[in-house]
Automatic annotation (TrEMBL):
Regions of compositional bias (Basic and acidic residues) in chain numbering: 30-41
Domain Glyoxalase-like per the UniProt entry, residue ranges: 8-116
One Pfam family recorded for the sequence: Glyoxalase_6
Identification of the protein by name: Glyoxalase
Spans annotated as Disordered: 27-46
Amino acid sequence: MISVVQNVAIDCADAYGLARFWSEVTGRPLDPDNRPGDRETQVPLGEGPVLYFNQVPEARTVKNRIHLCLRPDTSRDREVERLLALGAAFVADHRNPDGTGWAVLSDPEGNEFCVLRGDEDHARTPARP
């Protein structure tokens, strides 16, 4: 017997607004039944689990113990710039002079996520994260 990951649940203050941000990040549309003000929204990713946003009354108080890691189809640095323009915030820089490493950003509600090296980066630098 096994279990299949159905969704990645993200507690938030504004389910629809945060789902719109992640829809832009992933290039995937919100569920067509979702509307502004909905307390539960989702972004189907096509293959794999759904990003599920659940509106909760309490604010985020501690660092995420689980987070998303994104691998862009372009370069890591270009994707970081795109995500910052969408409303993400820069948290920490773990990029190395040799082109390896990652950047830590947060979404508009403070949930941290990583941006790994992208396809273009892998073509130019050693095969490491």
